[in-house]
Give the backbone structure.
Amino acid sequence: MEEMPPAGSEEGLVQQAQEEESQSRPTPERLPLLLSQKPVFRVLDPPDPGDLVYHPHRKIFPANSREAYTLDYGWNIICASRRGDSHAHHGKYREDDFSVRYICADPQSHMARGVLVALADGVSSSAYSRRGARAAALGATEDIPEEMLTRLIHAVRQGQTLDVFVTSIFAQMRETARQAVVKQAEQDQLSLSDLYSTLLAFLAIPTGYESLVLASAQIGDGALYAFRAQEYEGERPRDLWRVLQKQQIQENGNEVQPFMYSSANAWIQSLQYSPHLQTTFIMAMTDGTADDLQPAFPTHDTPDPDPCFFVHQFYKEIARQTFSRAGAAQALEEFLQYEQAQSRDDRTVVCLFTDYPHTSGIHLL
Amino acid sequence: MASRNFMPSRYLRRFPVYLLLDCSGSMLGEPATAMSDGLEIIYRLLMDDPEALERVYICLITFAEVAEVEPLVAIDDFRPPTLAASGKTAMGAALWGLAESIQEDLLPNTAEQRGDYRPLVFLITDGAPTDDYRQGLKRLKALTRHQPLIIALGCGPDADIAVLQEVTEKDKVFLMQTFTSQALHQYFKWISDAVIISSRAVNNSTSQGAVIPPPTTIPGIFPSHS
């Protein structure tokens, strides 16, 4: 007889919910009644569609062969962002954005030494936060001088200590992001508060098949996780994952600090740097998904819930549905259409991973 | 095809809405009937909004001789009752019950995870408290988390506006100088709109919070401090 998981355990919650799901699935005779009772989320386009060119409802990376590079030691990156149900219901734009910049990229071989990534989540009370999010993400990546990044790669290869260098790069990223947002505001004749967003940025340089130089910083409520290089039977999710950036949750639970409103010191204080991170998978996300992965509240039966239980569940589904399919980036975007009650915000996820052990061969496009 | 339930059972954050309704003897008849109708209006309108349906929880607290505190329930589990009116005006007990419910029922926000949202409270009364309301108010103000946003409506000439302005800020106290069922129905419609606007705002993670337009567009309802 199959052993039941303990009541209140995460495994028990998963099993219970799956049983409830199968029981509540309506029979064809009940379906019309249910549909007439329950309101549905509409899917509406914005009344002013002019920005759809730069802010489409869905965005993936790499979107074409031009963008598909492989990093040293077989590392790859895929990104996807999609408009949430709430914004679709109200005819608003996707307010998340991301930007990816390859470091020391060779267009002939389509290889690169590293990657600079930024994710931004527009604050919904800011009328044009989508433009602010895009400007911040692009500014944090595209506006960093190439020479600075080249020197960084050289320093990594030389085995130099990088702490000060990484700190200066991230200080620069914040400054270029801010300047980009200011420029956007001036160009559009808007106030800065119309363009508020969060900002999460990371820099990754592969140093082996299962190791990275990884640095990250954040002002906002996104998250960044790293999967340990090896998984052994019986290990708990909390042993397998490292939380590199966690959500900055304010007192009322739903407030978020726009990064334009924060100090340079706060940004640098959030900086996490690992010169030799042993990992095979990195996952960054905005709060639309990070909220779905927050740990369970302690209960009598589970007084110490695993903080990474849902992170691991999420990762297993991504690995199952995304990596083995042709067009991994597109598959990731489709995966982000998962159904979850109360999860109606824009979703943006960036995955950086090695070929092994996830699958033998990744098809990015 | 979108995945379903591969990651269920994360805590579903609640947006609690408390309705504190005066059911004292002076509300007997048309006022109590209008409030009962109002509860139906709230139920129907919130059930029709997909975002509100997912997160709004309702707690009904009626006060007369004593305060009756109903459980905090999801909107689709809320069954609008027919209100009866008689007796005194135990508003203090209602405020105490409100504080207790907030303290006991709502999960806190921590650095590690988000709990329930800040409660929204709608208080309707036509008179003055007949119990020691300051005890209940003190209990409420002593909450260390989830301090509620309270909007109060005084119905009729006997409503004690000064007390309501102790319970909440002056700009959140309104007066219906002459009670009419129509105005009260519209006020409950306004409550529904306010809840829907607020439930959208919490979903959007704004630091400023929702801007709820005041109910003074309803004929017969005025700001208390004008």
